[in-house]
Amino acid sequence: MMKKNSVSEESLIKPKTLEEVRVMIRAHKRNDFIFSSIGLLTITFALLTLLILFVDLVMDGYPKLNYQFFTDFPSRRAANAGILSAWVGSSLIMLVTFITAVPMGVAAGVYLEEYAPKNWLTDIVEINVTNLAGVPSIIYGLLALGLFVYTFHLGQTIVTAGLTLGLLMLPIVIVSTREAIRSIPVAIREAAYAVGATKWQVVLHHVIQYSFGGILTGIIIGMARALGETAPIITVGALTFIAFLPPAPLTSVAPFISFEWLQSGFTVLPIQMFSWLSRPEHAFHINAAAAGAVIIILTLVMNGTAIWLRYRIRKNIKW
Q1: What pTM value is reported for the model?
Q2: Residue 116 gets which letter from DSSP?
Q3: Closest to 273 in 3D by CA, of 313, 233, 316, 315
Q4: pLDDT tens track for 127-152
Q5: Taking the domains of the chain in order of start, what are their residue ranges?
Q6: pLDDT class for 42, splitting at 50, 70, 90?
Q7: Taking a C-beta distance cutoff of 8 angstroms, is the pair 173, 218 a contact?
Q8: Residue 58 CB partners (closer than 8 Å, separation 6+)
Q9: How far apart (Å, rounded) are the C-alpha atoms in residues 172 and 178?
Q10: I need a surface site. Which of 60, 66, 132, 222 has the fewest CB within 10 A?
């Protein structure tokens, strides 16, 4: 008798429970749809706004986007002004930034993720690295001004600017390297250890190889950010008008490498754009629009290259 009563109670409760589950699932699906729709509309609005601004910038600067614009020095006459010294200065500074930030950042990321002991000191280092990735760029400029210019007496030179942007880029490279390494399955490490590989062999031939796409993406994105930075470069003494080029890094005389360019004055694309915008003539504003379009195109190309390389590398990896 008790068994019949329990069965009858289950039969009465079960349909109600199933109906509640169905209602809950429908509510969750509806909430997911609403959230996805809001996110899609937000992204679409942001992309359309960026596209409109970019098209307007290109249309304003299109008359100046020619070969002469890239091969002429800045001039007090808008018709003769170009960005030769600016893009050469940006290229040399990016070279110093890459050399100083990338090897150190990748090595630090690998050490923190694979070798560093898990203790309070490592936790403090990790928290500080993460926080430094979000520090405003002007802080790095003030730090570089006091450290490189006034303490080490490097002057307002290309090497100072490159080291400044290297400090700015270093936390980004460390964080991106660690995130790329964390994405590697533990089974790959265990399989390598199982066949007798040492810790260094596992890290070099497996962990870094499989995470190389993510590491490279972080490096390129960091370089793209450094390319468009203005505040730290102004702080360490970038020139707003420069009508000469630094000495060439490569020479025709042995040892065929020169480091004189590291001590040269410099300007960069964002500074040149700012200088033209500060002038009242409309012709200089057209030049500034053309320089801004060049910066945005370079940034998009670098980010697109990072995405493409990551896709190709991951596609070629055999798990």
Answers
A1: 0.81
A2: S
A3: 233
A4: 888 888 888 888 888 888 888 888 88
A5: 1-63, 65-316
A6: very high
A7: yes
A8: 65, 289, 293
A9: 10
A10: 66
